[in-house]
Amino acid sequence: MTSRPDPAPAPDPAPAPAPAAGVRQAQKQASRRALLDAALGLLEQQNLSGLGVREVTRAAGLSPAGFYRHFADLAELGVVLVEESLANLHVMVRAVFAGSGEPELLIDRSVEVIAAHVAEHPAYLRFLARERHGGVKSVRDAVAAELARFAEELADLLAVQPDTAAWSAADRRMLAELYVDRMVSTALALVEADAEERAAIARTVRTQLRLINLGSRHWQAS
Amino acid sequence: MTSRPDPAPAPDPAPAPAPAAGVRQAQKQASRRALLDAALGLLEQQNLSGLGVREVTRAAGLSPAGFYRHFADLAELGVVLVEESLANLHVMVRAVFAGSGEPELLIDRSVEVIAAHVAEHPAYLRFLARERHGGVKSVRDAVAAELARFAEELADLLAVQPDTAAWSAADRRMLAELYVDRMVSTALALVEADAEERAAIARTVRTQLRLINLGSRHWQAS
DNA sequence: GAGTTCGGTGAACGAGTGTTCGCTGAATGC
DNA sequence: GCATTCAGCGAACACTCGTTCACCGAACTC
User: Which ranges are annotated Pro residues under compositional bias (chains A, B) (predicted)?
Assistant: First the structure.
């Protein structure tokens, strides 16, 4: 309890989606959340493969044995964290594209949304950065799958965008992967930068995205 | 010894640079290499923060205490591995740009060189992927510093490239970072892909780099 | 109200850990 | 030849670790 710097401000405070009836269930969910939050906090300065069951239960205020009532593995817990980490991103990207279709505006808003997300959920993003190529295969695969879904979603959105509507599906997918990759890299760079570096990173990525957009406008003409 | 899948084909076989006179020195260097190679092998399936001193010395055929004759920390060993990992890349990028200046050709050759490098030194690249955002700060910083040097080098090369010679230094740096990031991501994707996926990844990245190049050709015109 | 379910506990298991210590013996400097 | 250096060793210290076990007691079912 003394080792946790952050009181784990339950990042998804909504108790609505699956409160499930029963005091029993609620208490179990609370313990589960405590484990997840404790792990997330510890993972800010550590790898998943360096994390220990005892360490997590200690931070969560459970006994070591209690862990196994919720997860078989730390890897299993890790996969859940991956899903939580990226769940919000999907609704965010849709929100960005919901407005106007001006590419320049889209770019600015995308960067703003990413910066805000990084500022709000740094722990989740740090975790993703660490485990995207980390030592636990199942977690790595979960991240890859989630990012692929993300690229797919963006490719679908590009299909209704004037500049890219006429492209082949493969080319749209290629462009979507380019954008996703740039944004992921940006998020990861932002998360371990201090305040002044962040402004520079945001400026750079805006320019880079504009350059990519410029390239895609001249694509078919080549 | 039984747990090492790879007999660690000393990636830098040159005994010339610093053989230093003396049997003593040579034996010490051999042990040091054994430690580095053993660690690199173990890190193919593990994080640096999950690695143990005893584990490394066991794989290297030393006693645990022997480790401390060479490194104070596993982190220190990790930093050395980072430097070795990226040392070759610098000479490679110069080799690519030494030839003709045709952008399309440069792109094709860059992708080829990366693919070849990944095929030849997968362990080093896997290690870089893991530790670029891993749990050990000193190693993370070493990777970041090395990649920054890399971007700087590329920016210098862009200064003598016809399309970008007239750009501002900041814009060239921006473009260099975009290229470096794309290539790093590609290398990391290649390293955990199987043979058929690799062809697809190479094709995609070629297209993406062409699109970026197209954008940079129209940049000043915007 | 009686009986069942089940999340959480504390103790215990064997195994593995980082690091330090004094020692050895071959390579060195003279 | 002799004294010195020092890479490597085995043993030991004092941990931490993952996982299992029987058990408790509050929440549930009926």
Answer: 1-18
